[in-house]
Design goal:
Two copies of one chain form a homodimer.
Chain A: H1 11-18, H2 22-30, H3 37-50, H4 56-63, E1 68-73, H5 79-94, E2 98-103, H6 108-122, E3 125-128, H7 136-143, E4 149-152, E5 161-165, H8 167-180, E6 186-191, H9 196-211, E7 221-224, H10 228-240, E8 247-250, H11 253-265, E9 275-279, H12 283-287, E10 293-296, H13 299-314, E11 323-326, E12 329-331
Parallel strand pairs in A: 1-2, 1-3, 3-4, 4-5, 5-11, 6-7, 6-8, 8-9, 9-10
Antiparallel strand pairs in A: 10-12
The structure holds a DNA duplex.
Chain lengths: 341, 341
DNA sequence: ACGACAATTAGAAACGTTTCCAAGAATATG
DNA sequence: CATATTCTTGGAAACGTTTCTAATTGTCGT
C-alpha cells in the first residue's frame, strides 16, 4: 500500500519544490503566458511530481465565485425538466460553468430555501422553474436576489430574464385542429391559472372558440395542476359524464400519464371514441399504441437559451430584462380523428 | 429603490454591530448553547438587522468540506437515474448534505473528468453509476479517490461500497415464466457484458435454461448496450428472422423504448404474436396498451441505501467495503401470454 | 557597456469563516 | 469572603488560493 494518507499538495508545496514563489505558481496556472517558459517548465514538473490540483474551495473563496449555476426545479424525474437541464448544462459546461441541481418537489418552502442557499455563495446565478409563482415569500426572495437569474416558463412582474413558450398559440392551433375534425365537446386538462403554462393554455383554448364564434365549453375545462394524479381524476370525472367529451387535450406530460390511465381504466378506444392531444414529446406520447397528436416544442433550445441569457448576465450585462418566447408546433399523430357520429 | 448594491454583510460586520468578537458570532451560529443568552440575543439582532447569511464559500474553505456529494450518472433523463437521484438527495438533504449532479453522457473521458473535478474540493463524497467499468483510466481514478464513494449497480475489483440489484435471479425468474408459458425461442436484449447489469442478466438468462436442461438460444441473445437505439436495431433484426422468437425480454428501460418502436413498426401484436417482458417501472411500461410484465425493483430504496452508505463513510467509518444487493420481483402484466401454436 | 524600458518574479495582503488558546467573568465551594 | 472551578469571550491564526505592489531580472538600442 502506498503512503496514501498524506494530505494533498498545496500551491505552497509546488512553490517550494519548484523554487519559485506562490504567486508565480498561481500565474503558471491561470495565465501561463505571463511566466517565462523556463519557469513554467519547472512549475509544471513540480505540479506533476506532487500530483497537485488546485483546491476549488479555496479558489471559490478567493475569487468570490464558484463557476456554478443553480438549476431549481420541482421534479427532475419529469423528462422535460431533465432535457432542459441537460441542454443548459451542456451549454454552461462549454463555458466553464457547471450546473447545480436542486430538486424542490414544488413546495414553496423548499423553493425559497433553495434560492436562499444558492445565492449565499453556492452559485453565481440561477435558472429556475418556480412553482409558487404567486407566493409572496418566494417573490420577495426573487426581488432581492443577489445573483442574476433566468426563469423558465414563468411570468412574474419583476425585472428578470425569462425563457417562455407560446403555449397560447399552440393551444389555439390544437383546439382548432379538433374543431375542424368536427369535435365540439372538447375537454382541456391542464395546470392551474396560477402558473403561466396553465394560464396561457386556457387563454389559447378560449381563443380558438372565440375565433369560430362558438360557445366555450366552460364545464369541460379542468385546470388545477400539472400532476398525473390530477390528470387521472379530471379525466375520470369527464369520462363518467353522460355528455362525455369527444376529445381531450392533456396539456402537460404528467397529466397525459393520468389521462391515459383513466382512458385505459374506462376502456375507451382512442381515437375511435375519444381523440387525444398531448403536450411535449415523451416516450409514452411517441409510442402509446401509436404516436399521439401533440403540441411540441424544442426543449433543447429552451435550455440552451436560458444558459446563454444567464451567461450574458454573468459577464456583466446590464441590459433590461429579456423575455424570449419560443413557438410550438402541432404534430399530427394517430390519436386525433374525426368525431364519430 | 433601496441601496441595493452594497456588498453582503460579513461576520465582522455582525461582530461590530453587536459589540462582540467574530469568534462569538461564529459560535452563536454553530453552537448557540455555548454562548450566553444575552449575548446570543444581541448577535441575533445584529444578524437580523444586517440580513447576514454566512458565505458558504468561506465556510467550505475553512472547514475543508462542502457538505456536498457528487452524483455522477450518464443520463439524468433516464427516469431510473432521476428516481435514484431524488431518493438519495432526499436522504442526504435530511442529514445536511446536498447532491451535486454531474451528467456525463457516459463517455469515459467525461466520467474521469467528473471524478477529478469533484474530488478536488467540490464534493465530500461520490455516488456513481460509471459506464466505463473496464476503462483503465477510470479505474485508476477510482482507486486513488480521495473521498469516499458508493457505486450503483457496478462491480469493480476495488474496495468500494456498492449498492447492487440481483439482476441474475430476476432474469432467471422472468425467463422461467416465459418457458412455463411454453415459449422456447426467447430473445434477450440487454446491455453488454462489460457492465454489471448486462453481465448478470445474461447469467440469469442462461441459468433458466440450464435449470430446465434446455438448449440456450445463443443466437437470440443480443447484448451490447442499454440505449434505445440498440433496442430498436436488435429487435428489428430479430423480427426479420424467419424463425422469429415468440418472446422478447427488453432488459433495460431505454431498450424497451426501442423494442416497442420496432414492434410497432413491424405491426406485431402483443402478446398475441409476441410476449414482452421489460425491466423497471416507467410510464411506458405501465401504460403501453396495457401494463407490461416486468422485472421490478425498489429504486427509492437503492438511492436511499447509497446515501446511507456514503453518510457512514462521511462520518468516518473505516469498515471494509460493503456491497448491498437488492432483490427484484416479477410483476405480471398483459404482455406475456402462452405461446401461440 | 550603459541606461531605459519591458518582462518577469517575490512577497504579502486579502477573501470570510472556524477554531484554538488564553484571558476574563460568572458561579460554586469551603 | 476567598479561592477553585466552570462558562464565556476576545483575539489571532489558519484554511489555500488570487492579486496587488514593488523589486528584480532581462532585453534592446546606442
Amino acid at each position: 500500500m502506498r503512503s496514501d494518507k498524506q494530505k494533498p499538495a498545496t500551491i505552497r508545496d509546488v512553490a517550494r519544490v519548484s523554487g519559485v514563489s506562490v504567486g508565480t505558481v498561481s500565474r503558471s496556472l491561470n495565465a501561463p503566458d505571463s511566466v517565462r517558459p523556463a519557469t513554467l517548465g519547472k512549475v509544471r514538473a513540480a505540479i506533476q511530481a506532487l500530483d497537485f490540483q488546485p483546491d476549488s474551495r479555496a479558489q471559490n473563496m478567493r475569487r468570490r465565485s464558484t463557476l456554478t449555476v443553480g438549476f431549481v426545479v420541482d421534479d427532475i424525474a419529469n423528462p422535460l425538466h431533465a432535457a432542459t437541464f441537460k441542454a443548459a448544462d451542456a451549454e454552461m459546461r462549454g463555458r466553464g460553468f457547471s450546473l447545480y441541481l436542486v430538486n424542490t418537489s414544488g413546495k414553496a418552502r423548499e423553493e425559497a430555501d433553495a434560492i436562499d442557499m444558492l445565492q449565499h455563495g453556492r452559485a453565481d446565478g440561477l435558472i429556475m422553474t418556480i412553482n409558487s409563482e404567486q407566493d409572496v415569500r418566494t417573490l420577495r426572495r426573487l426581488a432581492e436576489l443577489r445573483v442574476p437569474s433566468v426563469l423558465l416558463d414563468r411570468d412574474i412582474s419583476l425585472e428578470v430574464d425569462a425563457v417562455l413558450t407560446d403555449h397560447a398559440l399552440g393551444m389555439t392551433q390544437a383546439t382548432e385542429h379538433l374543431i375542424e375534425l368536427g369535435h365540439r365537446r372538447i375537454a382541456l386538462i391542464t395546470g392551474g391559472p396560477d402558473i403561466r403554462p396553465g394560464r396561457e393554455r386556457i387563454r389559447g383554448f378560449r381563443e380558438a372558440f372565440r375565433r369560430r364564434r362558438m360557445d366555450f365549453p366552460e364545464d369541460l375545462m379542468q385546470a388545477q395542476n400539472l400532476s398525473s394524479d390530477f390528470g387521472f381524476r379530471a379525466a375520470s370525472t369527464l369520462l363518467q359524464r353522460p355528455d362525455r367529451p369527444t376529445a381531450m387535450i392533456a396539456a402537460g406530460n404528467r397529466i397525459l400519464v393520468g389521462v391515459l390511465r383513466a382512458i385505459q381504466q374506462h376502456n375507451v378506444s382512442v381515437p375511435r371514441e375519444m381523440s387525444i392531444i398531448a403536450c411535449d414529446q415523451t416516450d409514452l406520447a411517441r409510442l402509446y399504441p401509436g404516436p399521439i397528436t401533440l403540441i411540441d416544442r424544442d426543449i433543447e433550445e429552451i435550455g440552451r437559451t436560458a444558459a446563454q441569457l444567464l451567461l450574458e448576465r454573468l459577464e456583466g450585462s446590464e441590459k433590461p430584462a429579456q423575455r424570449i418566447s419560443f413557438p410550438t408546433r402541432l404534430i399530427l399523430g394517430g390519436s386525433s380523428a374525426p368525431v364519430p357520429r
